[in-house]
Design a protein that fits this description.
The chain has helices at 45-53, 131-134, 138-149, 179-190, 204-209, 223-230, 246-255, 279-301, 318-333, 352-361, and strands at 6-11, 20-24, 34-42, 66-67, 71-79, 91-95, 114-117, 122-124, 169-174, 194-199, 214-217, 235-241, 258-259, 262-265, 304-307, 341-347, 366-371. The longest helix is centred in the C-terminal third of the chain and has 23 residues, at 279-301. The relative contact order is 0.15. The chain is α/β, with parallel strands linked by helices. The structure holds NADP nicotinamide-adenine-dinucleotide phosphate.
């Protein structure tokens, strides 16, 4: 049987240029890999951050054959000879990991019709779940899982279906309506933790529907005082900070809490507004000064802190724990819902650039999706 014809949206240059759609090679799976016909992809901020800052980060990408795309769902078309969990025809969602420095393979990126996935980063989805809804899951869930479960982060008890007995501990998730936050709330509750979170008031009911017990407006002047008061009489499991300025506020809250003084940080320090001049200098200065000042503050408050690098779960026990063991069961049981909501903005690879531009302008409790 001849290989199918593949097409991809390529990132052709380190300098900002629109993605280019053209024919791409079809790559058969390695022994422990699968290939899917991608039916939906979701956009993450990192996609357009790489496009905008390509000269500064992900410098290893093989321009002009570089590709982006982390969140994919689709149908399995071919499996490697060691694969036992999947067969052609299976409906799946998975994280495409081709941009990671230790892989750096366009064949394993998501912005194409046929993507190579690793079984340990892939889950079956129920027949009732559409590809577009499922596509919002991977990078948000992976990032949340790195922060919550890795031993060098919060090292929480693992999730199960049904959820275990409550641990009696409360977790602070700053940025609950982000894609990372929506996943973190659900997986933390599934692991037996109570969750207090923050977002804009328009999303209060939504994050509560995902399992948060209390929610606060992160723009309120009294938010740190209010959350510190909410933790009185509670034992904390630590905090996960998502969003600009979140880590600093979480440190102030953890300082006054009883329990585990651990902070996992998803968002790295970046300029509050994109610089118009001296972009590289301003970005590096903000980044380094942010890292140093948060490190000093954490030491002073006796808080252990670590930045998330979402690629890390691919090569440790957390990836398979989530994608092989927990997620397929939680989706089948309906104890986990894909979140935030998918907004489909077009059909075809040609719509991916537009989808990235929409995400770049800012979204609220939603994920921008393109169907293929
Ligand atoms: N370290 C890693 O490996 C890694 C991996 C993935 C993502 N991230 C980072 O994690 C963050 C979230 O990514 P995402 O894809 O989840 O984002 P997203 O869903 O695109 O973010 C949109 C949401 O951000 C919320 N928000 C905006 N400013 C905020 C602030 N200052 N504090 C808290 N929430 C704020 C908005 O909430 P409201 O509309 O309710 O105001 C909105 O719902 C980003 O900084 C991203 O770069 C890091």
């Amino acid at each position: 049987m001849s290989n199918p014809t593949n097409q991809a949206a390529y990132l052709v240059d380190k300098n900002v240029k629109p993605l280019e759609v053209r024919t791409a090679p079809y790559t058969p799976p390695g022994p422990d890999e699968i290939v899917i016909r991608t039916h939906a992809i979701a956009i993450n901020p990192v996609d357009h951050i790489i496009q905008n800052l390509g000269g500064m980060m992900y410098t290893h990408l093989p321009y002009p054959e570089a590709m982006l795309g982390f969140d994919v769902s689709g149908e399995v078309v071919q499996v490697g000879k060691e694969v036992t969990r999947f067969k052609p025809g299976d409906r799946v969602v998975g994280e495409a990991v081709g941009t990671a420095k230790n892989r750096n393979l366009a064949s394993h990126c998501g912005f194409q019709l046929y993507t190579v996935l690793l079984p340990r980063m892939t889950s079956h989805i129920p027949d009732t779940l559409t590809y577009e809804k499922a596509s919002v899951i991977p990078l948000g869930l992976s990032t949340a899982a790195c922060g919550l479960f890795q031993k060098d982060h919060l090292a929480l008890q693992h999730p199960s279906v049904p959820a275990p007995k409550p641990t009696g501990k409360t977790l602070l998730i700053w940025g609950g309506s982000t894609s990372v936050g929506c996943n973190a709330i659900q997986v933390a509750v599934a692991a037996g933790y109570e969750v207090i979170t923050t977002c804009s008031p328009r999303n209060f009911e939504y994050v509560k529907s995902l399992g948060a017990v209390e929610v606060y407006d992160y723009n309120s002047k009294t938010v740190v005082k209010d959350i510190t008061r909410a933790f009185k009489g509670r034992v904390t499991a630590g905090a996960l900070s998502i969003g600009a300025g979140a880590a600093d506020k979480c440190l102030d809250i953890l300082a006054g809490c009883k329990g585990d003084k651990v902070l996992s940080m998803a968002t790295y320090p970046t300029p509050a507004t994109p610089p118009k001049r001296f972009v590289m200098v301003q970005t590096i200065v903000t980044y380094l000064s942010g890292l140093i000042s948060l490190w000093i503050k954490a030491r002073r408050y006796g808080v252990r802190s670590a930045y998330i690098f979402a690629d890390s779960l691919v090569d440790n026990e957390v990836g398979p724990m989530i994608y092989e063991q927990w997620l397929p069961k939680a989706l089948a049981a309906g104890t986990f819902v894909p979140a935030p909501k998918a907004e489909v903005v077009g059909h075809g690879l040609g719509y991916i650039q537009r989808a990235m531009d929409i995400n770049r302008k800012g979204v609220s409790a939603k994920k921008i999706v393109v169907t293929l």
